[in-house]
Amino acid sequence: MTAVKFAKHQRCLASILLVLLTGKAWALDAASLNTLAAGEVNKKIAVVEQLVNAGDAAALPVLEALSTGTLYTTETGAVVIVTPAAALDALTGKPAAVEPLEKISINNRLRQHLNTAIAALRLAAPDRALRLAAAMELQKSAGDALLPLIERRLQQEQDAEIKSLLRNVQANLRLRAPERELRLQAVKDLARNPSNHIKSLLLARIENGADGKPAEPDAEVRQAIHSAVAAIDRELKKVEYLSHLFSGLSLGSILLLAALGLAITFGLMGIINMAHGELLMIGAYATYVVQILFKHYWPGAFDGYLLAAVPVSFITAALVGMALERSVIRHLYGRPLETLLATWGISLLLIQTVRVMFGAQNVAVDNPSWMSGAWTVTPGLVLPYNRIAIIFFALFVVALVWVLLNRTRLGLYLRAVTQNRNMAACMGIPTPKVDLLAFGLGSGIAGLGGCALSQIGNVGPELGQSYIVDSFMVVVLGGVGQLAGTIVAALGLGEINKFLEPYAGAVLGKIIILVMIIIFIQKRPQGLFALKGRSAES
Amino acid sequence: MRRVMELYGTQGWLTLGGAALLFMVIIPLLNLALPPEHVFHVPDHIVALMGKIMCYAIVALAMDLIWGYTGILSLGHGLFFALGGYAMGMYLMRAIGREGMYGSDLPDFMVFLDWKELPWYWLGSDHFGFALLLVILAPGLLALVFGYFAFRSRVKGVYFAIITQALTFAFMLLFFRNETGFGGNNGFTDFKRILGFPLANPSTKVALFITTAFTLLAVLLLCRFIVCSKLGRVLTAIRDAESRLMFSGYDPLHYKLFVWTLSAVLCGIAGALYVPQVGIINPSEMSPANSIEIAVWVALGGRGSLAGAILGAGLVNGAKSWLTVAFPDIWLYFLGLLFILTTLFIPKGVIGLIGQLRGRPK
Amino acid sequence: MNAAAAPEESAIRRPVPDGQAWRDTILYLDGVSVSFDGFKALNNLSLVIEEGELRCVIGPNGAGKTTMMDVITGKTRPDQGEVFFDGETDLTKLTEPEIAHAGIGRKFQRPTVFENHTVFENLELALKTDKSVWHSLFARLSSEQYGRIAETLALINLTGQAHKRAGLLSHGQKQWLEIGMLLMQQPKLLLVDEPVAGMTEEETERTGELLQGLAGAHSIVVVEHDMKFVSRIAHKVTVLHEGRVLAEGPMEKVQNDERVIEVYLGR
Questions:
Q1: pTM over 0.90
Q2: N or C: which end of chain B has fewer CB within 10 A?
Q3: Is A101 in a helix, a strand, or coil?
Q4: Chain B partners of A331 at a C-beta cutoff of 8 Å?
């Protein structure tokens, strides 16, 4: 794998070489070439620096060849670059007829200089990736002498990311400038672009060196550096906080999607559905099937498959849920513990059925291309598109549930039935039908949750099992029958989880949360948003 | 003593004596004394299976006590079983001595983690007596503390069930971690001997089998004593009308706590008997699925009937060991249907069914 | 340590008009308020029941009758106000079982008995005795206790059904069994919620006699809707409305009270 890649890279490099060697004017003279080939190390380094300072792009192939060990001397004393296709004369760029004799070896010191030099020259390369890599390389290794070159390149560079990298390099170099004003300016520039790298650069300037004195001689500049570091720290903290906040929000919206269906079936209807997790799983598999169909029959529209998968997963899970309600759950109304056991049995059946149909292994669900990638807010804050999409999707589902419960006849009936079943029946509400539809709705919402989960994690027969405990915790914590409670509980749990993780680790964090929930329920058995009163207690 | 004699009628005692004779004398003899090719020889794997099922039967009795009689469904009994098993496993790990893969005094997994000494909670685990104490204390104390808080705040019904499920889930995650010090994913295994007797010896195995049978008998009699006493009637009263009982001057908290803790301890004992016979204990014993399966044993056998609990444990686990080998794909279907059909059609379990067939209202 | 401080403190808190009246008081509620999510189920309710009294409490739905019972038996804690029993006992500090031990028995609105136990076992469970776990585990009935159960069985007319499952009794029989269970507790105060609901005329009459026979030796508070029944047994009636006492006095006086007629009797 890597070997193949490497070979490909080499070939690519060779073709660039050919173009460069044949097309451009030749500035590298024979004397410097000879020094590179046979001189002593210090002289070689001097030549390399000279070539870079001249900004001579034409020297790049030779330096690269020297660095990769493809620069050879011949019997005649000429220097050639050996490519997989042919040996090229290093001076003329024409194919050389002579056999290469001896590889020109380099030591580590020279290699370092070479790397920097190559990076500096590559800043002018037309390929963005090459320039980016070069700018990154220079972050680590640029020397004072490169400053003029980098400032030149800064003026020509168009790409924002590369520009910001170069600016870092420039500022870093200017930190060492002899003029005090330049250094002060550099500190200010650096503080505007906070990262751990910059912070350590700045710190290096004020830490006491081997001679017991800080590298920065001027007290005022040192003071500026101190406050710059403090500002960077604040900024970094803020970024860290924001990224926790985001991942907490992301986890919270996932929990919310997993639990919303349960908030209807368990929260409102009081049905303990242990197969809820499997309804999530069914939604995820429905998405998988839609994806396969798109790939197979309509690959051009693949990016749109999610639009089709959303209703399909809703309907599939809703149908399965309604079948369950009709066949099993209906007969167990008013016997919650029996319902719990029977629905657990259902979950086993569903898991095994999916295993038989799709295999026991996880299946791959690909993100549509618009959901892959990430939004880089700052270098420290990268928000993956699929997570952002899920947060919005959760919002959409919450709105959907809210509208269904509060703005439709089904919702009205459902609320009536849950408050007083007998009275509702007397008013002519068809309670069995309402039960069926409401359970179908809850199951369908679970299906939507599954569709969302398929975009961020593995899809396998056991998918539901990993969410069932969490989902119940969210609903119980939020308070039974309270949509708002469910939302607060899900987002709260997500945030607490993510803010605990850095201190306690993922597993321990989860355990701490479970323990906290257990303790919380001891204190408030009715959940966050409790209904108080005589009827609520009996 | 008179009250013990009153626990069963003549027929009951005869049945019980017969069963005791069969499991404590006849089966061990048929296994040890007869050559393997003999018609009446009981093969080793059957003895091992029966030993395992008897451990499950103890768990089923414990579950019946708390669920069948008191009406509190626990989805965390697998946790107590596993804790008892881990307590015994710690002793068995220490009893390996230096015969482990690394030849160290420490259990292999600790050497593997590059630990230099035993964590404090392993102290004393090399004494068998201490291990027995731990078998009782670990599940007992956890149940006592957890139960106190749960029952005091009157967490009931499905809420209690869900919290116990979360509890066992949390412990499973905890025990999966290597840092917890109980062998992580792999748990404990490769035991060598118990009290100096090699576990691979047929006679050691049979001795463990007889011990299990004896314990099962003792647990059965204890449970019978409890459910026949006024305490038993209070427990069913909690199940049927807790508020009435409270206004009659009983504090349900104490009763629930007693039976809940006792039930947990019985599970712990079962786990301790299970581990040396099966030779392994790992965190998957704490998975919610395991705990909920216990409920279906009792539901199938018959809630509120001790014989039913034992019967249910035997039926489900017998079927499991046969089906998972013969038709592995069928097993989950079978178990799933068992859950559904039992709750839908035979709420009183097989025992209730037998009672109905005999025309005796129970 | 608290023992020394307690009498003094309660002496300040308790407004006792004169010693004689206090000694005869079995139940004392003053300024009790309970609210559920803003709804005031009890609103500054004050009530005094004397020893040996048979008091009927009436009032329309939502007047706070059941909540009042809940407060007295410890099921609901009042937001404000004092509840004292038998002089010394502060009921707001006790749990339900402790209140039962102190001598208050309660019959629920819907007859609540242990349906899977026999009638005899129901009475046995209610029997006044040590109700700790250990005692229950080893308890056996003494012949004196047998005698008391038999007596009560006769009183509630269920001797013939002693070994029948309570769940199989008729509605009226369950009501009686529940009253019998209260008696087994030997309470000083009985709280009886709708004792004749669902009873036949004859059963109602017997129940009235039973309660009247118990008054004197016990104090009884009866909550009832059946006006005929109330006027037959009651000496004194309290009318609750919107969580407070609307009127109190003999039946005739209450029946003629303008406000009572308006909210309840007037229809």
A1: no
A2: N
A3: strand
A4: 344
